[in-house]
Amino acid sequence: MASKTKHDFFDGQKQIDEIDKQFQTLQILNEDGEVVNDQMVPDLTDEQLQDLMHRMVYTRILDQRSISLNRQGRLGFYAPTAGQEASQIASQFALEKEDFILPGYRDVPQIIWHGLPLYQAFLFSRGHFQGNQIPDGVNVISPQIIIGAQYIQAAGVALGMKKRGLKSVVITYTGDGGSSQGDFYEGINFAGALKVPAIFIVQNNGFAISTPVEKQSSAKTIAQKAVAAGIPGYQVDGMDPFAVYAAVRKARERAINGEGPTLIETLCYRYGPHTMAGDDPTRYRTSDLDNEWEKKDPLVRFRKFLEKKGLWTEEMEKEVIEKAKQDIKEAIKKADETPKQKVTDLISIMHEDLPYNLKEQYEIYREKESK
Ligand SMILES: Cc1ncc(C[n+]2csc(CCOP(=O)(O)OP(=O)(O)O)c2C)c(N)n1
Ligand SMILES: [Mg+2]
Fold first, then answer.
1. CA distances from 325 to 128, 160, 318 (A)
2. Which pTM was predicted?
3. Relative to the CA of 84, which ligand 1 atom is closest?
4. What is the pLDDT of residues 26-75, one digit of tens each?
5. Where does the chain cross the membrane (predicted)?
6. For the chain, what are the domain ranges?
7. Separation of 27 CA from ligand 2 center, angstroms?
8. What is the number of the ligand closest to the CA of 81?
9. Is 202 in the pocket of ligand 1 (CB under 6 A)?
10. Per-residue CA distances from 6 to 16, 287, 314, 351 (Å)
11. With 80 as the cut, is the pLDDT of residue 2 above it?
12. Which of 157, 121, 156, 126 is CA-nearest to residue 142?
């Protein structure tokens, strides 16, 4: 074994510096919508490029409308998404329908674009059980509220896929805060050990509610946490749809080829509050920081890129906005028309055969509800 001097062997700072150096941020499209990395531009058709823009614009409108609906008391739990469209939409865009999404509470847009009907996302927000009854063929589960917990589930679902020999992958999302949880490490560790087809995304928006990422970890990047699990980790500009798409596509290819999981950190920002439950971001973020990030906006840079190619116009944008508003109107109406949930509903959806104590309670509530 090569011997090191005592000084070298114990030079922990050098060890850390060497790892840090390996984690650069991938950017393909800069803030002005210019390609800065020709070789890595994803191979997408004009229609796909337009579709990606369509989805990001639509999602921004959905976010604005969801915030208003929440303020009107017409939605329940809601975690704003504006600023994270490239991280969310471009990562889902890189998947195939057979792939599975295990989302966190902020990842509702991805599961909608993967096939969850919008009215069910609204029912989920209201805590209605029908919001969690995912239609057959839509490969998503309900958003996880416990931060990081879906990382372990993702390792498990991916192991199931591997055992069945499926050519599909699992993608799961958490935030910078989630990457400080034990579940995060357990999930990536076993996914690595078992070489399962999983893609682990950390949307690093700089804050876990009010706690800045610098106070959560000494690691310079979250991507480098992959090293300890023996899997690749990439850090990408999470405001750049091309960088996110390219990284997820690469991770998917590795997973499908049996090469195992990948961790991807997307550097992004949420413009709004943490959730609509009373959080005030002005108490922990400066307007300078907000402005700095707004300049990096994913929609602005992608619009510039497409306009230069003659692939996007104001009229097209207006059409998307109108379509989004119309869909939202119809979906909220459908959610309103869904019968209110009853206690008997909650009891009866839990078990194939009810245990005796729930049978008793079921009868008590059936009686009450019939009055
Ligand atoms: C295990 C657990 N601990 C604490 C909470 C309360 N909590 C909800 S969101 C959150 C911060 C999460 O931050 P981050 O992972 O960065 O995601 P972001 O909200 O920024 O998308 C915390 C601490 C929780 N939901 N689950
Ligand atoms: Mg965060």
1. 23, 39, 11
2. 0.97
3. 21
4. 999 999 999 999 999 999 999 999 999 999 999 999 999 999 999 999 99
5. none
6. 23-30+42-338, 341-371
7. 20
8. 1
9. no
10. 17, 49, 65, 62
11. no
12. 121
Distances from the Cα of 358 to the Cα of 187, 340, 352, 353, 368, angstroms: 34, 21, 12, 10, 15
**Average pLDDT over all residues of the chain:** 97
Query: Helices H, strands E: what count in the chain?
Result: 16, 8
**The 3-state secondary structure of 76-126, one letter per residue:** CCCCCCCCCHHHHHHHHHCCCCCCEEECECCCHHHHHHCCCCHHHHHHHHC
Strands in the chain per DSSP E:
25-26, 100-102, 170-175, 198-204, 207-208, 211-212, 233-237, 262-267
pLDDT at residue 4 is higher than 80: no
- Is 274 one of the catalytic residues? yes
Q: What phi-psi label fits residue 139: left (phi over 0), alpha (psi between -120 and 50 degrees) or beta?
A: beta
pLDDT (0 to 100) of residue 1:
60
| pLDDT, mean of residues 209-214 | 97
Report the alpha-carbon distance of residue 208 to residue 200 in Å, rounded.
18
The encoded tokens of residue 205 equal 């928006």
Total number of residues shown for the chain: 371
Q: Tell me the ligand closest to 104's alpha carbon.
A: 1
Amino acid residing at 363 = E
Number of neighbours of residue 92 by Cβ within 10 angstroms: 25
The residue among 199, 208, 324, 322 whose CA lies nearest residue 261 is 199
State percent of the chain over pLDDT 90.
Answer: 97
The set of residues, in sequence order, having a beta carbon less than 8 Å from that of 289 and lying 6+ positions away, is none
Count CB neighbours of 168 within 10 A. 19
Q: Whose CA is nearest to atom 25 of ligand 1?
A: 146
Q: pLDDT by residue (tens digit) across 78-114?
A: 999 999 999 999 999 999 999 999 999 999 999 999 9
Nearest to 235 by CA among 153, 323, 244: 244
What's the token pair of residue 135?
A: 């239609």
Q: Cα(192)–Cα(81) distance, rounded to whole angstroms? A: 30
Given CATH 3.40.50.970, say whether it is the number of domain 23-30+42-338. yes
Beta strands 170-175 and 198-204 are parallel
Atom of ligand 1 nearest to the CA of 104: 21
Q: Is the CB of 209 under 6 A from ligand 1?
A: yes
